[in-house]
Design goal:
Elements lengths: L5 H24 L6 H14 L3 E2 H6 L6 E4 L2 E3 L13 E10 L2 E10 L5 H18 L9 H13 L3 E2 L5 E3 L6 E5 L16 E4 L2 E3 L5 E3 L6 E3 L5 E3 L2 E4 L6 E2 L4
Antiparallel strand pairs: 1-4, 2-4, 3-12, 4-5, 6-10, 7-8, 9-14, 10-13, 11-12, 14-15
Length: 247
């Protein structure tokens, strides 16, 4: 969507605040021994307190509140009885609706110290996001974001997960434009003042192709390699991008 009124700003800032708060709260609870289902229950209670709802559950019927993916799971992991272990790489992906507005953000965390490779991969996803943020300016083509993401990921020796993208957001989860994580020369969309979108690098330590699990939701790396994901919802403005979901 494009922000057109002060009410839009207020609504998006509020749902973005709750997304950020949820991520912060879950991140503090990530530890060896906790189950992904326990984290999901915590998220459900918190967002209900703030009058928000799980957008994936509302829009797509996702069987959980937040998406929690572990190790080779790239995205859309279903919370359940799995217990986290030291060294696991855990992605928390929170997409909420409140008052008719939607915001979306994700963070990848290492349980305990983790391996150097896991730490590097998680940092790479954040670095790729920062590289994309630096080019997210009014008048720039949307595909400049994918160019920046892919350059940074490859510079660090990792792979961009193929076919998974950021997107416009605001009134529902997925809106135009598509925000690819690789350079798409055919894309002619321009970043305009007030445009709301997500930037979300998804990075693999090995193969670039994902595969879908039998559960119909979870996407994981085809070769079982670790994956990391970093995402925020932001508004493109003439003064630079404004992050709504900082956590």
């Amino acid at each position: 969507m494009s922000i057109e009124t002060k009410a839009d700003w207020r609504g998006l800032r509020e749902v973005g605040r709750v997304v950020g708060l949820t991520l912060q709260t879950l991140a503090r609870k990530v530890s060896a021994g906790v189950t992904t289902g326990e984290l999901d229950a915590l998220a459900a209670a918190l967002i209900a307190t703030h009058g928000a709802r799980s957008a994936p559950a509302m829009v797509y019927g996702f069987p959980g509140t937040v998406l929690i993916s572990v190790n080779d799971e790239v995205v859309h992991g279903i919370p359940g009885p799995r217990r986290l272990r030291d060294g696991d790489l855990v992605t928390l992906d929170v997409t909420l609706e409140k008052g008719g507005y939607v915001a979306d953000a994700a963070r990848t965390l290492v349980v305990g110290a983790g391996s150097p490779d896991a730490q590097r991969l998680a940092r790479c996803a954040r670095d790729a996001f920062d590289a994309a943020l630096a080019v997210a300016r009014v008048g720039t083509r949307v595909n400049a974001i994918g160019r920046a993401v892919s350059r940074e990921v490859r510079r660090q020796g990792f792979s961009v997960v193929r076919g998974l993208c950021g997107h416009g957001v605001g009134r529902t989860i997925h809106e135009p434009p598509t925000v690819a994580n690789e350079y798409e020369p055919w894309q002619r969309d321009i970043l305009t003042d007030g445009l709301v979108l997500t930037i979300e690098p998804m990075v693999s330590a090995g193969a670039a192709d994902p595969v879908e699990d039998a559960d119909g939701w979870t996407l994981r790396t085809i070769d079982g390699s670790l994956s990391a994901h970093y995402e925020d919802t932001l508004v493109i403005t003439s003064d630079g991008p404004v992050i709504l979901t900082a956590a």
